[in-house]
Write a structure and sequence with these properties.
Blueprint: E1 11-14, H1 18-29, E2 34-37, H2 41-60, E3 75-78, E4 89-92, H3 98-109, E5 117-120, H4 127-131, E6 140-145, E7 155-159, H5 165-177, E8 183-185, H6 194-210, H7 216-225, H8 227-230, H9 236-243, H10 245-255, H11 267-274, H12 291-314, H13 319-331
Parallel strand pairs: 1-2, 1-4, 2-3, 4-5, 5-6, 7-8
Antiparallel strand pairs: 6-7
Bound molecules: nicotinamide-adenine-dinucleotide (NAD).
The site of nicotinamide-adenine-dinucleotide has 21 residues, from helix 1, helix 3 and strand 6.
Amino acid sequence: MQTINTNEIPASVVGLGLMGCSITACLLMAGHPVIALAPIEADMQHAEGRIMHHLQKSFEEGLTNKKPAEFAKQLLITMDYAALKDCKLVIECTIENVEIKKNVYGKIEAVVSNDAIITSNTSAIPISILQSYTKHQDRFLGLHWAEPSHTTRFLEIICGDKSDVKKGEFLYELSNKWGKEATLVRKDIRGFISNRLMYAMYREAFYLVENGYATVEDVDRACRNNAGYWMTLVGLFRWMDLTGVPAYYNVLKDLFPTLNNQTTIPPLIENIVQQGGIGVANARGFYEYTQEEAKLWEETFTEFSYEIRKLALKYPADVVKKKLQQQTKETK
Ligand SMILES: NC(=O)c1ccc[n+]([C@@H]2O[C@H](COP(=O)([O-])OP(=O)(O)OC[C@H]3O[C@@H](n4cnc5c(N)ncnc54)[C@H](O)[C@@H]3O)[C@@H](O)[C@H]2O)c1
């Protein structure tokens, strides 16, 4: 495998909202020159401040030994698509709206070279649909990040029906440089992997609350204190291996037929959304918040994302392989 030099891979993030700014910070810290493209004027007002804030906090937390100012010559924030000319990787991160994304792809393809890889951070629009709006469909893939992108280890690389899997494999390699432990989704499927798993859980959570089995708070407690305890170390399959496969075999026979498989929107979320609730962002969600509590939840989430990262770094996917190598070295 050829060594990848990120400094030789100019990248672009198109769309500088919540995620576009943290993805930009991640790419800069990984060594890419980055063109941060603002499709709307509002981005120009806040993007630089947000990116610099991520870089400053990352410096303080030891994610990088460079101060924010040292990244300045690697970063250009602009509204001009022509600046994308030499980019080898473009990450579209605009609002979840097919028409807007389609329009943005036209502008990107008009300037980048044919070998540039174009990706979308869409949460749920199938990649095969998005790539059908591009001229060179084989170089279009999904790149699904988790917020805050510069601290999280999660990344899904998704091939659409027409994507070149080799380009997916290249991104898989490259993402190691971004501090990610990526999942390559070789065949397109709605929701990709993590959202399919998570939404199966959300559906059951709504069912349990709406049918009076437990409160929102108690469902959350079960979630945090069971799955939440071990999931940074292992996934579902390793967990079954660790705790004994036959137990799961026995339970699922009787439990699967009782799980909820409703396909309509649960009233609990319908009501919140109809009444304008967003969550902590406007202090109205599944829980009640004072303005002060909502702000503190946002701050606590940020603080936690840096803390959990430190723990996660001690336990990479190949943690056992590394331990074995260490033991072999010590016995020699
Ligand atoms: N927020 C998350 O946790 C999360 C996680 C994974 C994926 N995503 C996906 O990432 C993408 C961006 O999400 P976000 O949370 O950063 O959104 P956001 O609302 O913070 O930012 C949206 C950005 O879209 C762009 N935009 C808005 N109107 C536009 C227009 N008319 N034309 C062109 N561009 C326009 C702007 O750059 C704006 O800043 C979405 O596809 C979303 O589904 C979000």
